[in-house]
Structures are given as C-alpha cells and as structure tokens.
Amino acid sequence: MTPCHLRIARRAVTLVTTVVVAAVALAASACGGDEAAPKDVVLVTHDSFAVSKTVRQAFERESGLTLKILQGGDANEVLNRALLTAGDPQGDVVFGIDDSVLSRALEGDLLEEYRSPELSSLQADFGNPDPHVTPIDHGEVCLNVDRGWFASHDVPPPTSLGDLVLDRYRNLLVVENPATSSPGLAFLLATVATYGDPGWETYWRALRANGVRVVDGWEEAYTQQFSGASGSPGKRPIVVSYASSPAAEVIFASKPPTTAPTAAVEDGCYRQVEYAGILRGAHNEDGAKQLIDFMLSERFQADVPGSMFVYPVRADVPLPEEFVKHAIVPRDPLQLPPAEVDANRDRWVARWTDIVVR
Amino acid sequence: MDRHRRALSAAGRAAAVVLPVAFLAVFFAWPLGAILARSLVVDGRPDVPLDVLTDSTTRDVAWFTLWQATVSTVLTLLAGLPLAWALARFRFPGRSVIEALVLVPFVLPTVVVATAFVALLPDDIERSVWAILLAHVFFNVAVVVRVVGAFWAGLDQRLWDAAATLGASPAERQLRLTAPLLAPALASAASIVFLFCFTSFGVILILGGPRYATLETEIYNQAARLFDLRTAAALGLLQLAAVAAAVLVSGRLERRLGGGRRRSGAARRPAGGERVAVAVVVVGSLGLLALPPLALVLRSLQVGTGYGLDHFTALAHETPALFVAPWHAILNSLLFSTAATAIALAVGIPAAVAVASGRRGLDVALMLPLGASAAMLGFGFLLAFDDPPLDLRSSPAIVPLAQALVALPFVVRSLVPALRAVDARMREAAAVLGATPAQVRREIELPLLARPLAVAAGLAFAVSLGEFGATVFLVRADWPTVPVAIFRFLGRPGEGNVGAAMALCVVLMALVAAVALVSERALVRGRPR
Questions:
Q1: Nearest to B523 among A11, A19, A52 (CB)
Q2: Which of A1, A341, B51, B155 would suit a FRET pair with B184, their CA atoms being 20 to 30 Å apart?
Q3: Complex-level ipTM
C-alpha cells in the first residue's frame, strides 16, 4: 500500500475515534446535568404549548425550581402517553387535556386531586371543574375566511354553518380530518352540536356534494390550502382554524396591516377548554402544585394569548390589543358534554369517514 | 505464532458481533419487547391477535403497503441509475458538488417536501397515488445514487475496456457486464429504498390524504390516537415480519449475485458522445431534484409582497413558537447528528464486518429497526427506560441513540457490498508477505473502503439530521432540532412563522450539502482516480 493510503486510513480512524469520544462526552454531560439538579418540575404537554421566556424565568425564580418541558403530539397523544405510563409518569404535571379527551383522563386514574386557591379568580364558566383537573385556557375552533378573496369575487362571506352547503360556496371549503386533527374533530363536534345525532350526517353529505376538501392536519389546511394565509399557495378561501388566527396574521406579518387579511366566523365556533393536572406518582408533587397555581396567575394568564393564541380563563386579564381588534371571542360557542363526546367520538369519526372520505 | 494469530482474529470477529448485538438488544429489542408485552399479554397469558391479522381491512392496508413500496422502489432505481453512472464513471466540473446536493432531499422533513410538492403539482395529481410515488422517488434517489455509485466507482474500468476491445457493443457491455457486476449494490440500494417506502409515514399521511393508509400509518393511528395497543401490536408484528422477509430475500440475492472485484476505479473525463449523455443525465436529474428545494428557497425569501432575507435574520431572535432562539436548533442538530453518526459508525463498522463475513442473522437484525413503527418503539422507550442507570426518558442523550438506530442500517448497507468485494487474493497476498490480520484490515481494507465509509458517514449524518418521527417524540422542548423547530413553526399561523420554517428548511439543506461535501473531501482526497 502506498503511504497515501495509509494516511487516509489513519485519518478515517482518527475521525471515527474523535467522534465517538465526543458522543460519549455529550451523553455523559447530559446525564450528569440531570443528576446535579434535583429541584426540577417536569411538565408533559402537547406541541402547541408555549410560554414567554420572562414568564418562565419568573416562575423558576419565585419557586426555586427548574421547569423542564417534555413536548410532543396533540392533546390526544399526550393523554395516551400519560395513560401508557400511568403511575410511573414521565413528569409531574400534564397540560393540554381538552374536553374531547377529559373523561378518558378521569377514568384512566391518571391524576391526583388538586384544587388551586386561584380557582376563585376564574370566569364563572370555568370556576368549578372536576377536582382532578384545573382549566388553564380556552380556544375556539371557528371557520376563517379570506376577506380579499370574497371582496374581489363579489361574494358575501358565509356567516353560518348552514351557508356552507349553498351553491355559491361550492369547492371553497377546506377542513381537517377529525381522525387525525384536533380542530378537525372540534369542527365535526360543532356540526353534531348544531344538527344533532344523526342529523349531522345529512349535513356532511351535503358538504361533500358541495366539494369540501379534507386534509390531514391544520398545517396543510391553513398554510397550504387556505388562500388567506400569508404566503400560502392555497386556492380555497374558507378553512377551519381558530378564532385567534386573524390576530396572528397581523402580529406575524412583516408589515402589520391595519385590518386583518382574514376573519373568523362567529357562528359554529366550538369551544375547547384545556386543562392541567398533577400526574399520579409525580416525583415532585409540591412543585406540581406550584406550577399549576402559577399557570393560573395573572402573569401566566396574560401571556397565554400572545404565546399560544388561546384565551385566558381568569376574569381579570385583559386581551392584547391585536386580539381586541382582529380576533373574536365568540359569545355563545358550541360545546358538548365531555361524557357524550367520549362515548360517541370513535363511532362519529368512523361514520364521518364512511360518509365524507370513502 | 500462526495459531496465536488465528485466535486473535477469532476474538476480533467475536468482538465485531458483540457490540452491535448489545446495542440492538438494549435500544431496540428491550423497548420493543416492553411494549409488545404490555399490548399482548393479558393477566399473564399471551393474547394472540389473530382476528386482527385476518381482518379484511388489514389485508387491504397490507396490500397497498406492498404495492406502493414495490412500485416506488422500481421507479427510484430507474430514476437514480443514470445519475449514479455519470457520477461514478466520469470526472467533470462540479461533480463533488452534485454528489453532495443529491443528499439534500434525503434530509428534508416530510412536511416540507409535501409542502413543496403541493405547490408544484397540478391539483388532480396532488392528492393521488402518483404524488406518493413521486415523493418517494424524490426522497430516496440519493440512496441509489450513493450506494450504487460508490460501488460502481470502485469497479475495475479495464473490464469495460477489455470488453470493448473484444468487440462488445455499448449496450452489450451495460447488459452483460455492468448489470451483473452491479447486482449486489443494486440489491442493497433496492432493499433500503423498499424498506423506506414500505414504512413510509409522513408522505402517505400528507400527500395521500385520508384515503390511503399503509401499515405504518395504521399502527400510528391505532397506537397513538385510538390507544388500541392490541391492534397496533398485531400490525406492528406483521410489518416487522414483512421487513425481515424482505431483508432475507435481498441478502440472498446480494450473495448469489456475487458482483465485481474492487480495484481503485478510474473515473475519467467523458469523451465524444459520452459528453452529451453525461450532460443530459446530470442536467436532467438535477433539474428534477432541484425543483422542490428551489420552491422552498423562493418561499424563504418572500417577505410580504417583495423579497428579502428577513426570515433568516429573524432566526436570531426569540419567538413564541420555540423555547430558545431558532439558531439554537441548528447547533442542537449538529451536535445530535454528530453524536448519532459516531454511534452509528462505532456500531455499524464492526457490524458490517461481521455481516460481510457471513453473519446473516445479524444482517436481518440490523435492518429491523427500519421496520419497527416509530410510534410503537417510542412507546417502548417510555416503558423501558424509566429507571437508572437508563433513566433516559427526559435525557437529551436519548435523541442521538434513537437517531443512530435509524442510521445504522445505512452504515451497514453502504459497507457490506464493498467489504464483500475486497479481493480475497489481496488479503492472502498480504498475509503471505507477513501482514497480521490487523495490518491487512488497516492497510488494505480501510483504504479500499475509504469511499464507502465516507458514503456511510454522510448517509448516517443526513439520516440523523433529517430524522423527525423519533426525535420529536423524545427531545426536550429546550433542545429542539431543526426538523422539530420547522414542525413547530409550521404549526402556527402568520407570515413570520411560515417564513422561519422555510428559512430553517434552507439552512437544513445547506447543512447537509456542506457536511456531505466536507466528509467526502476529507476521506477521499489524494485517492488515485
């Protein structure tokens, strides 16, 4: 072999060795770090959880605890992970359980009872929850419309669920699959709440005949198919999204416009309340209580709209200006009892799949 | 002396088996066993889910899975071979850049590719089975170009010259010389592509819409969403069995096909008509491969109604979508992927040596992680790693370990055909001249393997960098990788979020191209061509 070959071989060996050492060092430092800080509180939550840095730091400073966040999946997947590890949980607090999965969480014997002293400061709708869970925020799943499209096509935007089956809205609506998407499920529940069971089936047959498009998740529906989202290649001007989405279009615009390019339709909005709970078997139960109290504090609640684009449950927290101007807070949103949702959800979704997709 | 040497090499061979087996046992078999036990054991008795396996829905899903994977594999081979030929056989300006660029599609998160495809494809194709097939070709063409190309480049050019001298036409040379010589590398690449398409997840969910389901999407559906662990486990076992069968078949093919001997291949400048052929192939392939990434670059530069770099500069600033400034994700990704590549190489090199010297069982075992559903394995990790010393559930160390598990098959697949093809006579000659087995390995095998090693490292890095399914499940919120950050940004409305996602996609593409270029240069420079 030539010396040149040898050099390459040595180089390869050195490279591999260096990288192995680096990997071991990384793993060791990561493990070491965890052991050195026993004063942690671990929050298990979904993909959409967010909190401002200053607010998180305030909690860590005041409590003396480090807040670790484990994040992944939607509300349903978070719950299923918690059910899988019931009694030997991944963390101390779970956040993001919503109405559609609440009764499964309660039946699963996952959570410790806790009544936060802050509950008395909540709006009347939220002040008296099941003792195993604490409401933290509420989101409203609403139809969003592209104002520009409707203005330029000289068609009035729809104002109710019933409008969507009209001929002038043919091929304009895109919705998420309730089997794979949380807003998709909320929209299906909104139609059940409006038209009753099995009346909703007739409504969806009409929607299908009117050219509704179904996509897998909110990302595809909103950022790809909906024409009103900024930079979207989409061609459909009606989408299932949230009451707060128009405000986000203003806040995240490179040049914030004076009026939002999109609007939420107040009729047919479905309310999703998100809860937190202390996981049974938590390593730091006291820390868990502090975290839940903090999530109901004015500081955290005021941060909820700007961070997660949902609404606070506290009565005394004002909404940010952009929300007041561009978003809506539906006065009389639709809701179904959690037990009814839980008892029928799988059947409804299966029926829906037969009617709309097959 | 001689006996001593033989004992040493036996010990070496044993060591080559122990490390990969231990790695697979701890990070694959144990968690998988934990979730299967939880799903299929009721009151201490096994609950055999035969009813699930004989269900007609299962049959339909399994058939579609097999069908789309087979068609996707054939299309990917057809699409990748011309470029593999051009890159392996000829020297031309920009060749190494193109080799690096080919890897780019491979690291793009499926959400991003689907985004690009939705933007590019006409409406009626967009939601059809064609969209799925095209996306699979786009994703996996790098495997064909790299695995087949690296092998092709190492074949002895004089065989073609001799055939030409003996009067074989170009077509005859390709059919009767190239095809049989390349067969093992083709089988190797085809098996990886097949497994990737067989277990495809994001592409099916997003481009297939709600109408198409594969075993992998159905397992996810049953486990993560419906929490029907019994059905999920049954389908998971079916998928594993199918993958094991596919690996066995391809391994048998690879061995039976034999393949060509390795010498330093001689890439040369294309001459005459070859120049046209190479130009057509390179420009054509690049054109097709570049379209989706270009669409992303354009979108990352779109600011309001004009163009600018605002989305890139915004990566320096904190935003509600992440718990750290977005540029941290780039550092995290580099760190995790480097560690994962190191682990994959440390385990994969001895594993490849063992497989090449006839450990077929290990070969199948190493490919199985590709066949396990990410959702089931993720659940298994949660059940298995809950106690010290492997209390990994909230440790960042679990991320590179999981990524290495996914990257491992690529390392082994890239190395095995080359290892098998090392001319036995060279080894014997060296031994006769007094070289120890270690010397033979160091001075004969390693130099000949420099290029496949570079390919393996590049693929492992790319796979780790783009890995999403396991990472998003395991990573802590303060340690997002680039694909996880892209996913979080895409999950929020507003121009700034979409823009940040697109900018990060561009960064991810640039990263993988740069790393592929550097790793290949570092290892292959100075090699005679």
A1: A11
A2: A1
A3: 0.77
